[in-house]
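Interim report, section 4.2 (structural modelling).
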Amino acid sequence: MPDMTFAARVAATGLSPKPEDMPKLQALVEDMDRAAALVRGPRSYAEEPLSAFRLPTP
Amino acid sequence: MSSDLHFMTIAEASALIKTGKLSPVELTKAFLARIAALDSQLDSYLMVLGEQALADAGRAEAEIAAGGWKGPLHGIPIGLKDIYNTAGIRTTGHSALFKDHVPTEDAVTVARLRAAGAVVLGKLATWEFAIGGASFDLPWPPARNPWNPLHEPGGSSSGSGAAVAAGLAMAAMGTDTGGSIRGPASWCGIAGHKPTYGYLSRRGILPLSFSLDHAGPMCWTSEDCALMMQVLAGHDPMDAGSANVPIPDFAAALGGNMTGMRIGVPRHFFESDVTCEPEILSAFNGAMDVYRSLGATVTDIALPPLGLFTDVNSLITAAEGFAIHGDWLRKTPELYGERGRLRIMAGAFVSAETFVNAQRERARLVSVVAQAMTSVDLLMMPTRQMVAPVLGGYDSAIGPSLTRPFNMTGYPALSICNGFNGAGLPISLQIAGRPFEDHLVLKAGDAFEKATNFRKIRPTLSAAGATPMSAAAN
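Predicted structure of the assembly:
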């Protein structure tokens, strides 16, 4: 969501951090955004996540 | 063997307790007296359970006298990180949010320890809800490092690491989502074992990240971790992550030499992905020489970049942590300290797409590590690239972490002491193995400890040696 301001992104989460929290929170979120870009791919559509549903074996 | 009761290992004390040469009551009294005399310097305990501990020790003593010795933990005084639920006893997560939280049941691991006759001395300090860092804006102060109370003990199992190193508990329980057992074990110079995911029940432990949280023991030696594992490991059908696998005899696997053991070293992790302090690198290379002298082979191997493991771990922890704390953070954010509040709030910004992609990348990384471990039996590296920094100055969110790959994979990983730097602060070695081969990891740790003299050195604390709190806070 690069076209949203950080304040708008915060508001969308329903959180209300203190004003003095905002710069530190923004730095943490920017690090998350960087990590998110790293895992985006490219990858095969068929590649399953580790959390794929598994039933216990009988 | 140590002549001080508080510096005995479980293996030493239990041999004496079994034969009636050491009284669990006297042992517990010795620990309680030492906590009363010295813990004001370390703040490792949030709550000391003196009366209950003495009652439990008295019961253990009577049972043993009647011929009912239960095993090596019978009558052994231990501490619990304060995210382990204890029936009728406050379990706070070191947070104002849970200041009055009194569970009705023990965590499964706590129940197992009690059934084995362990004596619970008290509840130990942690980073708030096992994330963030040492904080001065919580209802209790942060724990300090017994090797130098001006320094970090590491975290999040900070009180567990400090108490065991200082002889304020013979063993402790920690938890590990990204390194929270091995980090404090590293900086406090003890043995901390993050078991294979699924070996130990997580039920009744305040969660941070369901798919990355591990419970585990923190002790002075690997041998003691093995004795703890024997009691702790076991299937829990009510824990969705619990594995229904045979439990080996962990202690029986110890001893012997390392002949034929193949050690892989992902050297790029700590020589280029992050930069180790020179004394840590030198100590690591010395440790590999020790293993070669014990008959092991040591080979460099390549794994994906350390930063990738760290990033995927961070995304999953953030998303799962916010799923747990989101409602409280919206309603009562003021009940969190700044560090915990901000770290967990950041999880609100991990999208569903990112979370699923992180789990897809995690599956790929697990597969790559599994393939690499077909050619080696163990992986070794430093646990931390630096020794304990000054208290309050460490931020676990910054930079690649040498511990997180084994939360990502769920593989067992042990941190042991690998000597000391010029300032007397502990240096560590991390040993990881294949899933459910914890006994090999502990065997390697035990072999190293017995081949070196680092287990003979303890931190020096005295009742007159209190550190000015204001000096440390600056």
